[in-house]
Amino acid sequence: MHLLRKSFGFVICSLALAAARSASAGAAAAEPPPKTGGGSGAAAGQALTLTEALARAEAASPLLRRARAERQAVASREVGASILLPTNPVVSGAAGPRRDPAGNGLEFLLHAEQTIEIGGQRSARRAVVSRALRTAELREQVARAETVARVRAAYVGAQLARARVETEGAREALVAKLLDAVQNRVQGGASSDVDLELARLERGIARRARADAALAATDALARLRLLVGLPAARPVTLEAAIVAPTSRAADLQALIARAESHRAELAVIGSSQEEIDADIVRLRREAIPSPTLFVDLERDLPGQVYLGAGLAVPIPVWRRQQGELAIARAERSRLDEELALAGRDVAVEVERAFGAESAQREMAELLDREVLPSAERAVTLMTEGWRAGKFDLFRLLQTSRDASEARRLYLETLGLLWDATINLDRAVGEQ
N or C: the chain end with fewer CB closer than 10 Å? Predict the structure, then answer.
C-alpha cells in the first residue's frame, strides 16, 4: 500500500512539474521536427519561420496583389499623359468641276490643321500621374502593413494552439498513468471503486481537452496556410518556442507622435491632397486656349492657286473648367477633413492598443510570476496531504485540474498580449 501511495503521488507531482516547466520555458508551438531519413518532403513536413511566412505572404496576399495591380494601372496613365500633341492632325479636302463664263476646270481645296498646347498642360498631366502613382505606392504599403499584422497574428496563434495541444497531450498521458496507479490500488484493496471512477472521469476530461486543443490548432494552422499560400494537407513545422514580446521603452505621447509621422494611411491622405492640388493646376492650365495651326491649299481655275496658313484660337468665355475646378476644390476640402479625423482616430487607436498591451503584459507577468508557481505548490502540498491521509482523491484531482486551468489561462493571456503588441505595432506604423 505504501508503494502504491508513492506511485500515485509521483504521478501528481510529475503533472505539476510539467506545468511549471512549460510556464517558465514558454510554450512549444511546433509540430514534431521533420525526419531526416528517407521519405518524401511532404511526409517530413515543411519548416516555416515567421520571416519565411511573411515572405510568402508578399506573393500570396490578396490585399497586396490588388494593391500592386492598382499601382500598375496608375503607372500606365503615364503613357497618355506624356503625349506631346493633345489631338491628331485633321486633313480635309474637296474637289469638283467648275463651269462659268470665265472658264471651266477642276476646282479643289485642301485643308490641314493641328492643335498645340502652349500652357504647360503636358507637364501638369504628368505631375498628376506622378502624385497618383505615389498614392498608389502608399496604398500598397498600407496593404503590406495589414498583411504583416495578419500573418504575425496567425503565426503566433498557430504557435499557441500547438503549445496548448502539447500541454493537453502531456496532461492526458499523466492522467492515464494516474488511472493505472488507482487501478493498482483498487486491486490491492487500498482504494475504492469511487476513486477508480473519478480517475476514469478525469481521463475522459483530459481526452476531451486534448481533442478540443487539436481542433483549435487545425483551425489556426488553416488560417496561416491561407495567408501565406501553403497547400493543404502538407505538414508544417513552426518555430518551437514562444515567449512574451519585449516591452516598449517609449511612452504614449512618443508613440502617438511616431504614429502621426509613420502611419501609411495618413500618408495616403496627404498624397491624395497633393494629387488634387496637381489636378487643380492641370485644370487651370487646360483652361488656357490651345491654338490651332492650319494650312489651306486651293485652286479655282488652272493657274489660280492659293496657299495660305493661319491660326485659330478659342476664346475662353463660357467654358473655363469651372465645374471641374469646383469639384476638385470640394474634394480637397473633404480630404482636409478626412486627414483631421484620421489623425484623431490614429491617436485613439494608439492609446487603446497601448492600454491593452500594458494590461495584458501585467496579467501575463502576474500569471508567470505568481499564479503558475502557486498552482505548482498547491499540487505539491495536496499530494503530501493525500499521502498523509488528510485529503481525498477528489480534492487532489480538483487541484491538479486548477493547475491545468492556470496553464491554459497563461497561454490565453500570452496570446492576448501578442495580439495587443501586434495591434500596437500596426497602430504606430511599425512592421
Answer: N
